[in-house]
């Protein structure tokens, strides 16, 4: 029965994200965002073995490979994996909600996961696999969209800043740094709202226009912090991993086990 359920969930993930990156040579805003990751969060990182979980079409992986790192990617999107392979990158097709990552224990110095866990059905399983393939005291860097940006979530309450920070700590990650990326505005919210409606003003062309205006505004204001009516587009958590023999689920079961009378 469990095997059939796994096939069911795997089918859903592949169907949902199969064409996710079709026609995209790089993710929207990818060059600017991932250059910031490389230059700020991964400054002077070279000669490391790095895994990008939810690597998409491979923009960040290519940047890190060009810095003489040994890079690997994993994603549920067939078009994303194909794009990575076209760039000469090593990338595995898998559902990170239920699949075991196709890598050895303690293989990676650094694991990255940018705006991915909000798309998946089991963040707990994904984190356990990340801890398995990441070396003890290895670096884990993860980002989530700011809830103020009205990004859709499978588990909305998990991705508030406070709750997600707690979730990282519960999974034995020590947070060493938190940074905000980008400057989002009311235009981002308006764009999200229009996408959820029907009508003349809710076409892809209007969405693209608002996105273009918002990006131009962000480029003009990117050197200013805390500009009026703006907020960070996403939060990036830099963490250290600590190995534990028990999963979070096993820890919760142990701590809540009823005491016989």
TrEMBL record:
Question: Which InterPro entries would you find in this protein's record?
Answer: Methyltransf_11 (IPR013216), SAM-dependent_MTases_sf (IPR029063)
Output one GO MF annotation.
S-adenosylmethionine-dependent methyltransferase activity
Q: Known Pfam families for this protein? A: Methyltransf_11
Matching entries from CDD domains are given as: AdoMet_MTases
Tell me where in this chain the Methyltransferase type domain is found. Answer: 51-142
PANTHER family from the UniProt entry: METHYLTRANSFERASE TYPE 11, TRANS-ACONITATE 2-METHYLTRANSFERASE-RELATED
Coiled coil location: none
Q: Which organism is it from?
A: marine sediment metagenome
Q: Which protein are we looking at?
A: Methyltransferase type 11 domain-containing protein
């Amino acid at each position: 029965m469990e095997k059939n359920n796994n096939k069911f969930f795997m089918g859903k993930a592949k169907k949902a994200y199969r064409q996710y990156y079709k026609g995209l040579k790089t993710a929207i805003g990818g060059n600017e965002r991932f250059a910031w990751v490389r230059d700020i969060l991964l400054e002077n990182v070279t000669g490391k073995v790095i895994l990008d979980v939810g690597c998409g079409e491979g923009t960040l992986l290519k940047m890190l490979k060009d810095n003489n790192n040994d890079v690997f990617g994993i994603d549920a999107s067939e078009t994303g994996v194909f794009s990575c392979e076209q760039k000469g990158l090593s990338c595995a097709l898998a559902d990170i909600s239920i699949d075991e990552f196709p890598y050895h224990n303690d293989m990676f110095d650094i694991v990255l996961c940018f705006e991915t866990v909000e798309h998946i059905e089991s963040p707990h399983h994904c984190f356990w696999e990340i801890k398995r393939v990441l070396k003890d005291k290895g670096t884990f860097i993860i980002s989530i969209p700011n809830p103020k940006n009205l990004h859709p979530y499978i588990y909305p309450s998990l991705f508030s800043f406070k709750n997600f920070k707690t979730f990282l700590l519960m999974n034995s990650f020590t947070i060493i740094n938190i940074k905000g990326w980008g400057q989002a505005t009311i235009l981002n919210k308006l764009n999200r709202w229009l996408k959820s409606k029907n009508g003349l003003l809710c076409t892809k062309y209007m969405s693209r226009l608002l996105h273009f205006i918002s990006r131009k505004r962000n480029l003009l204001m990117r050197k200013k912090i805390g500009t009026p009516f703006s907020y960070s587009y996403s939060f990036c958590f830099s963490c250290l991993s600590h190995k534990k023999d028990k999963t979070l689920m096993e820890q919760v079961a142990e701590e809540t086990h009823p005491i016989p009378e």
